[in-house]
TrEMBL record:
Keyword list, A-Z: Oxidoreductase
GO molecular function, one term: oxidoreductase activity, acting on the CH-CH group of donors
Chain ranges of the Pyridoxamine 5'-phosphate oxidase N-terminal domain: 24-121
Cellular component, GO annotation: cytosol
Name of protein: Pyridoxamine 5'-phosphate oxidase
Naturally occurring in which organism (per UniProt): Antricoccus suffuscus
One Pfam family in the UniProt entry: PNPOx_N
Region (Disordered) location: 1-24
Superkingdom of origin organism: Bacteria
């Protein structure tokens, strides 16, 4: 995937600041441990929940039980927002990823993702790949990938509002 077009929104950025480079935003996406996922219910109401996710091959991946609300919502509407960052006022960066969630069932990709989850959390999240899903001690989880259409980076302390537009 080619890199995004990156621009700064001067209306919401400190005077003289510059756009956050995509490499820095991507680094923070790779390091992030917790994300907030927003999906849309069938009646149009939003649903938000925290979850763990991994950044791999220029996309964010997460998993969920088949009958959890987020999975039910994604059956009818693939549009999602994933957000991560810190609640600090004077430092760090908050990131918002917009895109469509697509089910991942291909065994080789699922095995790569299972290894990524295990490596990221020092073995705390271990999955086997069976029948197009992750299997774990508590049952099974379906896996979704979100290739971003837009990523917003909000620098804190030195305030910046950067837009990374894909496609």
């Amino acid at each position: 995937m080619p890199g995004p077009t990156t621009t700064i929104d001067d209306r919401y950025s400190d005077p003289g600041s510059s756009a956050t480079p995509w490499a820095e935003t991507r680094r923070d996406l790779q390091r992030a441990e917790m994300f907030w996922l927003t999906t849309v219910r069938s009646d149009g109401r939003p649903h938000m929940t925290p979850l763990v996710a991994v950044w791999l091959d220029e996309a964010v991946y997460f998993c969920t039980g088949r009958d959890e609300q987020k999975s039910v919502n994604l059956r009818d509407n693939p549009h999602v927002i994933l957000a991560t960052g810190r609640g600090d006022w004077n430092g760090g960066m908050n990131i918002v990823v917009e895109g469509d969630a697509h089910r991942v069932t291909e065994p080789d990709r699922l095995r790569r993702l299972a290894k990524a989850w295990e490596a990221k959390w020092d073995g705390s999240w271990r999955y086997d790949v069976v029948g197009g899903v992750f299997r774990h001690a508590g049952g099974e989880a379906v896996v979704y990938g979100v290739a971003p259409t837009k990523v917003l980076s909000f620098g804190l302390g030195a305030f910046t509002h950067t837009r990374h537009q894909f496609g």
